[in-house]
Design a protein that fits this description.
heterodimer, A: mainly alpha, Rna Polymerase Sigma Factor, Chain: A, Arc Repressor Mutant, subunit A, 8 helices, B: 7-stranded mixed beta sheet, elongated
């Protein structure tokens, strides 16, 4: 598999993961880019699955480092919860913005391990890879993942069950 | 690691085991034992259904915050550009025509054959020693040869002129506006680069190459030629495309090259 093939295979999912992790489209694009740059810079080689896991791990670290530098994003979001998510002035746009804000706040309320498990599992990682990413035993992943999803659902409250078609 | 026999309690598997079962992370033998248990245990079937419902709704909720991924080609190019030692800050929503002011003709004479161009200090794409040894035939080789090379071009009197030569049909030239004080040019590694103050000449040997030009927003002048044909020009803030009609791409414009 060439670098181009790897990029094509991994980039969309990595970008989605970064958007979900950061809540910021530009930061997500920069983060996904940074992960691939480091892959090239360090000449990391391996099987595609291993490289994918490596890229997600690096992206997670980049986001964590950035958060440390820029301060508590959750606090900023709490102070101004919807300015970055309301897409337009229509009822549908405002409604969508609110739905997005609920999900982002719920994600922000999770601790880093729960958030990483939840989001990386959505990108198709196996328990072994999840365990390595968050530093736990593989046999603990099922319990932790179930707990993370439950906490996410609790944080979302009734908004967990909303669909795009509801008004 | 999958959940093995030793870690499975067939009598009312705990939540973690049920979650692993649901996620296909339980080996076949204990899976069959759980299958048998579920047949006779409504309590565990309900627990499994709750976990399944949580997973489905979490997935749906997360999908609400998704946005379209940037075009693969553009994203890959940015990675390679940064890898080449240059930070790119292309704002996605900036139109190329928005901010360039051009001074016509400046410095172009310096591109003539025989001019005292210095050989550009193009970034060498070296791959450091591997952190992890490749395994088997599926290993990904991050080939240095596959990566483009780039040069930086400092403006002269606020003007930059870029010329590509030997460009084959099927190639394309992409122009971006970026922050910074130098223009940059990226081309396949076999290309020959020459650069001086305010100008650069790139002789391309690879067909269907992707050629990328980044122009600082604050330039006073800029011009891009392909095979001695002007494709991009801006004078006094007015951008013109004397060659083939460009196509808007993420943060820039792309010019097809239809004739060598």
């Amino acid at each position: 598999m060439s670098f181009d093939d790897l990029f094509e295979d991994v980039y969309p999912g990595l970008h989605r993961y970064c958007v979900r992790l950061t809540g910021d489209e530009d930061v997500a694009a920069d983060t996904a880019q940074e992960a691939f740059v480091r892959l090239l810079e360090r000449g990391v080689k391996g099987e595609p699955a291993g490289l994918k896991a490596w890229l997600f791990k690096v992206a997670t670290h980049v986001v964590r480092d950035r958060a440390r530098v820029e301060g508590n994003r959750a606090r900023l979001l709490a102070a101004n919860p919807t300015t970055d998510v309301v897409e337009d002035g229509t009822v549908e746009g405002i409604d969508r913005g609110r739905r997005i804000a609920y999900v982002r706040r719920a994600l922000d309320s999770l601790d880093e391990r729960d958030r990483t498990l939840l989001l990386m599992r959505e990108e198709g990682f196996q328990y072994r890879e999840l365990a390595e990413a968050v530093g736990v035993e593989p046999t603990s992943v099922g319990t932790l993942l179930a707990r993370a999803r439950r906490r996410f659902a609790e944080a979302l409250g009734p908004h967990m069950w909303e669909t795009e078609t509801e008004t | 690691m999958r959940i093995g026999e030793a870690s499975v309690k067939v009598e009312h598997p705990d939540e973690g085991v049920l979650q692993a079962y649901l996620d296909g992370e339980v080996l076949s033998e204990p899976r069959e034992a759980i299958d048998r248990h579920l047949l006779g245990c409504g309590e565990c079937r309900d627990a499994l259904a709750r976990l399944d419902s949580l997973a489905i709704h979490a997935r749906e909720a997360l999908a609400r915050i998704d946005v379209p991924s940037p075009p693969i080609e553009t994203a890959r190019w940015k990675v390679r550009t940064v890898r080449s030692g240059r930070r790119v800050h292309v704002h996605r929503r900036v139109a190329v025509a928005a901010s360039l002011v051009l001074v016509a003709g400046a410095g172009w004479a310096a591109m003539a054959p025989g001019s005292p161009f210095r050989r550009a200090a193009a970034v060498e794409e070296t791959v450091p020693s591997a952190l992890e040894a490749p395994r088997a035939e599926q290993a990904v080789e991050l080939s240095a040869a596959a990566e483009p090379r780039g040069i930086a071009v400092p403006p002269e009197a606020g003007s930059v002129n870029i010329a590509f030569e030997g460009v084959g049909a099927g190639a394309s030239v992409v122009v971006y506006l970026v922050d910074g004080d130098r223009a940059t040019v990226t081309a396949p590694p076999a290309s020959r680069f020459e650069a001086g103050e305010g100008s650069a000449r790139v002789v391309v040997t690879e067909p269907a190459a992707e050629l990328v030009v980044e122009l600082p927003r604050e330039l006073l002048a800029a011009e891009v030629r392909v095979n001695d044909r002007i494709v991009y020009r801006s004078i006094a803030g007015e951008v013109s495309y004397p060659g083939p009609a460009p196509v808007a791409v993420d943060g820039g414009v792309r010019f097809p090259v239809d004739t060598p």
